[in-house]
Amino acid sequence: MTGQDPLLGSKSVYDPEKVDGLPSDLSKIITGPMHNLAVTENGRLWGWGRNSEGQIRGMVREDWEEPGITTRGNFQAPIEISGPWVDLGRRVVEAAASGVVSYAIDCKGDLWSWGYSKRGQLGLGVGITQATQPQLVPALSGLNVVSISAGWGHTLCRTESGLVYAWGYSTKGRLGFEMPGSAPPTEERLCASRASDAADAVSRADVFINEALEEEEAQLAAAIVWDPTCIQSLANVKVAHVACGMDHSLVVSEDGSLFAFGEDRDGQLGPQLHRNASNRDWAMRTLFLEEPVLTATAGMSHTVVVTKEHKIYTLGSNFGGSDEEPSPVEVDMLQGENILQ
Hints:
By secondary structure, the chain is mainly β. It has helices spanning 84-87, 187-196, 202-222, 271-274; strands at residues 26-31, 35-40, 45-49, 75-81, 92-97, 101-106, 111-116, 130-136, 145-150, 154-159, 164-169, 224-230, 239-244, 248-253, 258-262, 285-287, 293-298, 302-307, 312-316, 325-330. It has 4 helices and 20 strands.
């Protein structure tokens, strides 16, 4: 591992180091912003890193003094995560990690979630913000979930039939549909409103600001989708892959089309949406490349695309390099390489 946060119970490291304590039959490694998960070939699930929200193992404060547990219950070494799937005799086949929530898909296609999220990322129903142990996501029961991706405050999953479900924080269109009346007041609108009242009495200004903040909080709450909801605009698309960035989402179809939606401030959605400021917050657009897309992944504010011709393209923020790239650019150093994913 490289660049590990001291919060996780170890020094930061900049050269790869072996992670001790994991089984030898690992099949998948999932990295989240604050913690990591690992799936073994026989369907066991392991986790390590931040656990302050119970995203690895639900705990009470008395448990924080156990060996191998650091400040606020974080795990510096991997531990096995046992959920209800074990008692059901099922294996874990896929997993995902957001900053505060963990997910596991078992071999029967059921999705389990646990952790803490005020933005509805658990997907367990209206107002449910915490699960100290893995809980079955009821809205997806029986739909045979096959893959999942988690952003900072939103989540997408794909079912065996190729449908995409989304839930969590919906602003900027990151869920693929608009929530009527959910757009929070912009900073410009709030500033303009407050400036217009500058001549009023201080007490009146205070009342206005408090009301504006309460309104904003209510609108933010209204932007939460608590239960997984099918993205209807993709209902007729056979989806092969989903990916969530911090505030944007990507969907790849079986025929190689790439759909992008959500935040586009750094051009991570591509040239169509980036150059159309009037639509940039809500519209779902198809990102056209010269060749079909095999898969794609979303970072904090950038997108990486692998085509079926095994080429790799990037777009969006290039922090630390040049300015953002609203148009896909092939990665020169990898030209000629047979990129698979």
